[in-house]
Amino acid sequence: MSALFRRRPKYASYKEGKNKRHKVLQTLAYILVFFVIYLSLNTFILSTWLLESNGMQPQLHGGDRFIIISRTIQSVLVAISSSQTSIPWQRGNVVLIDKAAEKSTPLLLRLADTVVRFFTVQQITLISNEDLLYMKRVIGLPGDEVYMTGFVSRVKPMDSIYTLTEFELSGKPYNINIPQSPSFWNESLPFSNNLEKIILKENEYFVLSDDRSNTNDSRTWGPISGDVITGKAIFRYWPLTRLMVP
Predict the structure, then answer these.
(1) Which of 163-179 are b and which e, b meaning 16 or more Cβ less than 10 Å from the residue's Cβ?
(2) Where do the structural domains in the chain lie, given as residue ranges?
(3) Quick one: fold of 14-240?
(4) pLDDT in tens, 198-230
(5) What secondary structure letter does DSSP report for 38?
(6) Is the pTM of this model over 0.90?
(7) What percent of the chain has pLDDT over 70?
(8) Is the Cβ–Cβ distance between 43 and 194 less than 8 Å?
(9) In what side-by-side order are the strands of the sheet with 152-156?
């Protein structure tokens, strides 16, 4: 008799199965929409970035996190402002430089890397470019004449007859670390405290670390192309005790 009352296996009806498939497709659609929004924001509007080195001391430190406004938005803001210049950056701006942009990376690889980084919360990447991302300060703009004495840059803007220090031309005050040069230091060594005059060409920028003992800036690269400047730091949001506009 017990066999007569044994519960039969419950199979999902066609309608239940259809509803489950609909929920799965709906979830995938939400993920896709969120991904597209993330990609659009990260590429064309705002992104966040972690400063890993101490090359921008004394004001900016390794471990600081910044909100970066993209080159696209910065160019639009300049275009709609009353400014007469079409140059998106100003002297004194802290910018994000992607030296990987000088390399030719296949489009499919870049797209796949974007997807992987999105779904792993930036923990995994297919393109190793950790050593090619830098945060530096803009010292000279296209057309400027730039030279350095005592680790301090002097700049003569293209439309000026006067040469001023980098601090006088910056739209925002900042400090730099000036290292003590060893006794054997001379002008032939890298990162000398003096640099000869150079005139920046069209779409060329001169950028430096605030810590002038730090490597990897225009003292070794030379002037950089504006094409490798991907954005500008507009706010330091971490740590909370050092919130600031760079």
Answers:
(1) eeebeebbeeebebbee
(2) 14-240
(3) Umud Fragment, subunit A (2.10.109)
(4) 999 999 999 999 999 877 899 989 999 999 999
(5) H
(6) no
(7) 73
(8) no
(9) 164-165, 152-156, 145-149, 195-199
